[in-house]
Design brief:
Elements (H helix, E strand, L loop, with lengths): L1 H19 L2 H163 L36 H19 L3 H14 L6 H14 L3 H14 L5 H15 L3 H14 L4 H13 L1
Helix pairs in contact: 1-2, 2-6, 3-4, 4-5, 5-6, 5-7, 6-7, 7-8, 7-9, 8-9
Length: 349
């Protein structure tokens, strides 16, 4: 529309220009007109550009309005979301506080339990310490008592060993004196020719028992002919029946009534065995010593020596027992008891 106004304006000016101007002026005018046309074209272009820009600006304004509306809508949503988030945040915060309180309560409970267990451990540790101290004191006292007891036992053992040795020596002395008296009594006596010989001199040989289980008959003598052998057999039967106390008394009666019998050493040996089986080892040692002192060549002598050593073992005097076993090997090397003595020595090493 603006282009049409411009054209009409030019047509209205044309007659005037033709009347008033020369040819040169006409050319100059045409040049100016072309310049104006160019300017008009450029102006129209600018107008078009302006219209386009105006339309673009209108569109942009519309878009801006839409954007503003969208911004307002989004702002509302943001505010709504912020409100909702605030509520959620408050709920989360409340839940977090509750959880934190619960956790704090659990931590406190665990701390209390830990403190309680620690205190219990300390109390238990103290109790154990007191008990250990008490036990240590008791152990120390027990060690002291054991030491004193061991010392007392050693003194008792030495005392008993000395007493046993003294008794054995005394018995040996008495046996030696008895042998001397018996030797004097057995010396040949001068008998008047008008007096008959009533007793034969003692030959010096002693009858022996064949074995421990079956004692042999003794050499005939006045007392044994009157029942001495039966007394011995009865005493031995009591021993075999393990009636040791009665057997000891029966053998003692036999020895008292038959002091010159060849079975006296055996009777003394069985008296020692009766004491040994009654665990009266020290008295048994003395009885065995009587056999050795009075009848060292009797078949019961090596057996008495062996059992004497075993009795010393029973009273825990191993050193003396070893001495006795060595003596048995030296004095009765060919006896059956020598093997047993060697076995006992090997066991005591």
């Amino acid at each position: 529309m603006k282009k049409a106004y411009s054209l009409l304006f030019l047509l209205s000016l044309t007659p005037f220009l033709w009347q008033c101007a020369s040819q040169q002026d006409v050319q100059s005018m045409e040049l100016r007109m072309r310049t104006l046309d160019n300017r008009l074209v450029e102006l129209n272009r600018n107008i078009d550009n302006l219209e386009n820009r105006t339309a673009s600006m209108a569109a942009m304004s519309n878009n801006l309005d839409q954007l503003q509306s969208e911004v307002q809508r989004l702002k509302g949503k943001i505010e709504e979301s912020a409100h909702s988030d605030q509520e959620d945040s408050q709920r989360m915060q409340a839940s977090q506080q509750e959880s934190e309180q619960r956790y704090q309560a659990m931590i406190k409970d665990m701390q209390d339990r830990l403190a309680q267990v620690t205190q219990q451990n300390e109390d238990l540790k103290g109790q154990l310490g007191n008990q250990i101290a008490t036990l240590q004191t008791g152990v120390h006292q027990l060690d002291t008592r054991l030491g004193q007891t061991a010392s007392d036992l050693e003194q008792i053992r030495m005392k008993k060993a000395k007493e046993s040795a003294d008794r054995a020596a005394k018995a040996s002395k008495m046996a030696e004196e008895a042998r001397e008296q018996a030797a004097k009594a057995d010396e040949p006596r001068e008998i008047a020719p008008d007096h008959p010989l009533k007793h034969k001199p003692n030959s010096g040989k002693e009858a022996v028992a064949a074995s421990d289980d079956e004692p042999a008959a003794d050499a005939a003598g006045p007392s044994e002919e009157g029942g001495g052998k039966s007394m011995y057999d009865k005493a031995y039967s009591l021993f075999k029946a393990e009636r040791y106390k009665e057997a000891y008394g029966a053998f003692s009666s036999f020895i008292e009534k038959n002091p010159h019998s060849s079975l006296v050493p055996s009777a003394r040996y069985w008296r020692g065995e009766s004491l040994f089986n009654r665990k009266e080892y020290e008295l048994a040692i003395l009885e065995y010593q009587k056999v050795l002192a009075e009848s060292p060549k009797d078949p019961k002598a090596p057996a008495a020596l062996l059992k004497q050593g075993m009795a010393f073992e029973k009273i825990k005097d191993k050193d003396t027992a070893k001495i006795i076993y060595h003596k048995l090997l030296q004095d009765y090397s060919k006896s059956e008891q020598a093997k047993a003595a060697q076995a006992r020595l090997d066991a005591l090493k």
